[in-house]
Amino acid sequence: MRTIKLTFIAVVIALITTFGCKENKDSETETSIVSTENLDEEFYRPNYHFTPKANWMNDPNGMFYLNGTYHLYFQHYPDGNVWGPMHWGHATSKNLIQWKEQPIALYPDELGLIFSGSAVVDKENTSGFGKDGIIPVVAIYTYHNMDGEKAGDIDFQTQGIAYSLDEGMTWTKYSDNPVIKNPAIKDFRDPKVIWDNQTNKWIMSLAAGNKVMFYSSSNLIDWTLESEFGEDKGEHGGVWECPDLFPMKVENSDETKWVLLVSINPSAPNGGSATQYFIGDFDGHKFVLDKDFEQQLQQKNSIWLDYGRDNYAGVTWSNIPKSDGRHLFIGWMSNWDYARDVPTFKWRSTMTIARELKLKNKNNAYYINSLPVGELDKFAESKLSRALLQNDELTKLLKDVDLNFERLRLGFTLNNLKNDSYNLVFHNKVGDSLILGLDNANHELFIDRRKSGKVDFSEKFAPRISKTKLPNSLAALPVQILLDKTSVEVFYNNGEIVMTELFFPNEPFVQFSIISDDDSFTIEDFKVREFNFK
Ligand code: FRU
Asked: How much is the pLDDT for 422?
């Protein structure tokens, strides 16, 4: 039985008053008193998603791979469980699934707090930071100067760099920071750097208010503005943040296209923050939208990486070896609408599962496909597998097996579908339910977490059902579901449409059923796997 702690933690965020509060994060308070009454701190700690041991986390930062280790840095406030003066926390992994938290990588300094950014392995030592043959890793990040912000200045965000000569464990800040000063743009942040083989230069994508600015450099220190993109493209109901530009091969073709991820807060399709993307060409100087993609945008206005509410600020890993060749992505599994209010207290926020992105083209429409990285399979033990089931058989079948719904992967295809609703429901003994659904008559996929347990910690958490539109009704729908203690990640049609959401049940879910008025649909290739991490 889990222990019930009756502790009250009073967290007085004195540092927030010292450094001030972050703009745009409207519900930030200077003092936050939180309680863990009736809640075991570890009850909601995920089984296989990364969380910091203690205190606040937001965006993933500076991800790179080197010599068998994946590095994940993250926006971190080590002294409180809400957003505060930002540091870069650090975690490492050999397999993208099991993470080990490391000492804090970057601390705020007199130039400011350390906001989001990226890291590259500077193999040719273009920066000159390498010594005695040691290859430097260079982090490029935003300085957020609180004094400047408080004084009402506009130029309080600048870009700085730091280097590591021990593969990302310790960092030295460059002595002449900032390397990019602010050109009088209030939101000027989140540098993501890649090496461009066309121009043999580093290319930086930087969020600048309502657009992305591209810079180039031959040494990671001196940067030249190349071009801008996006003022009149995509969604603009909020500030653009955390861009990521990279080339991708279109699956099953020789074509290469460039993908630009752009997070935006607010104005996500289901409220708050989310990540949109663009597909086009980049010649080392300018990003131009692909014509077919532009048409897609004309119809939809914006295209999103994930239609759930909890995948934000995600970017891709750098320095993945050619022999691997994958585009590996991780996102922050939360939403600025309520990130500070979710009912975990000792620690706050989780990352999504690491995902592999693929670029596909179907009927002249490009899209990004996401699936969990294959490494996750190594920890999955098969619990059930059936080639074909009727719905009433499913209910009986599941009654007889003991499944741990706190670390589960479900996969199946719904077949012979009618213009009806199909609700995939997780439930527990105290009446909480989480519904993933297909409303086939209205051409919609949805997640309904309104009755999923604790929801009233924020009015913005579950005001309504999250939805995404489908072009037409479906005859069949392949579904993959990852369930952890407080998160569901649903990959429809082998990763074509993704929905990621959090939930906080009062007790763990213990049952799964499919509810529909249609009694003739079939469930094919039904597989249940349980994760074990020993
Ligand atoms: C995105 C973001 C970034 C910023 C960071 C600060 O969630 O707002 O734009 O660098 O968080 O923590």
From this structure: 98
